[in-house]
Amino acid sequence: MAVCARLCGVGQSRRCRRRQRQNQQDQGSDSEMDEDEEERIVGHRQADVGVGGGCGGLESDVPTAGPSDACEYGSGHANCVSCLDRTSTGPPHPQSLADLPPELLVEILSLLPGTALPNVALVCKKFKQIANTETIWRRRCTEEFGMKEDLQKMEVGGVSSRDLYVKLLHPYRHILGLWQPDIGPYGGLLNVVVDGLFIIGWMYLPPHDPRVEDPMRRRPLFRIHMLEREKATVECMYGHKGPHKGDIQTVKKDEFSTKCNQTDHHRMPGGRQEEFRTWLEEEWGRTLEEIFHEHMQELILMKFIYTSQYDNCLTYRRIYLPPFMPSDLLQPGLFKGTYGSHGLEIVMLSFHETSARATKLTGDPNVPAGQLTLDVDLSRPMVLPDLEQQRNIEELSRLVLGVHEQVQREAQEQQAMSNSATTRGAAEGACGGDCAAEGAEADGCRPAFSNTNNPPEAQPFVLPLGVMARNEVYPRTCRKCFYGTGLIAGHGFTSPERTPGLFVLFDEDHFGFIWLELKSFSLYSRLTDQLAHAHAPNMERFEAMLHIMQSWTS
Fold first, then answer.
1. What is the spatial distance between Cα 53 and Cα 46, in angstroms, rounded to a whole number?
2. For a tag site, which of 12, 57, 277, 383 has the least CB within 10 Å?
């Protein structure tokens, strides 16, 4: 009972006094009972004993009959006496949830979600006391939000686990997960997580170009904490002067915005020039003098001017990681890849029946974030020639363009069939089902693309001469190759078109794409960061998200 008193504040002596008063009242009421009431109680006792097999039945708080009365319905006289003696001195069996010991109630309420505990506290004073037990809220913080810190040390500091849940974790639970900031064509990747006693929004940045194998870089944009017990505090982390006042507003479902209330913390003493040099060092890992390509200098300066407009207010839209299906070619997820003068960008690889798609999470002025950068037809595998022929760009172009022309012919045939569907439907109605059968047979005669040569498990691979690559070091063997198309466009996403190319699968964590028209090669490497609260509930929800993403920048 000492444990009971510590857990919920209900002491041993208090409960004992309540039981003594109840027993005294019961004894007083026994003396005043009439014979009809005694017969009714005895009848209930007989039913309980019959169901429970003697002494094992549930006992109630109503007064018990004497031993001579109890012997009329039971087994032997001695057994009845011993049974009643045991039951009268021991604690009563619980008739309801409120009769359970507090330590059991603590364990039961710990299994409920935190949102249900306030309703439980409305039942009675005892439930209210137990529902406020720190053990329960500590477990809710751990199981619902993955907190692994020693919450007991935090409680010593004056912030209870209940306050942490009620004032911080639960009110801001809707912003946990993956988000894409609305920064025009550049996009981005934000992961909001519970980090220690904070909720932190981490912006993920690709490694410096062209080191695609390096880990992602992280930068905190905002944080929410309970360092003050009264309420949760939002702070902006942008700039170089430390945390300062910020605000978070929920715009609508799956969308929120952040605002900085002290933008002077973002400014540097040296003005815009110092801010640009610092930004360039963080973004590209070099100075402007070290970038000799004039076009790249223009792109870098343009990005700095554009993104610096969003340093005081940003809007974020929720995104999901693609779900994994057993039939997928490899584990879907996020990859970082090379995009020429635009540097490294983040794409999301997902699988949709017979196609693989890579969607940009970060973009550039030509092809913005949210657009489908790669579309791979998994029903059209390709076998590479020997290494000597692979070095010839003309030979690779001949193979890929041959498949591309076949795809275009099939698309034109399908379009023609679609246009004549109304006329054909009328003709089928006139001639009956025979014409329909003939039409179906004719459609079945058109063979789909097939490759009779099964590609080996590992094929030697080398880039053709004349194909530009940001990475001189790339895998020299590949598992499979497929025909695909890549999206290219002019500045401002003008005149977008899909051009043929070769998708090369190296291993579970690397793939590449050869852009034939651009004569360039992009190498992609998987993000290995563990992103919490990020997976899509189902494939339908994920595909709806992709459709919405493309509409943002179309």
1. 10
2. 12
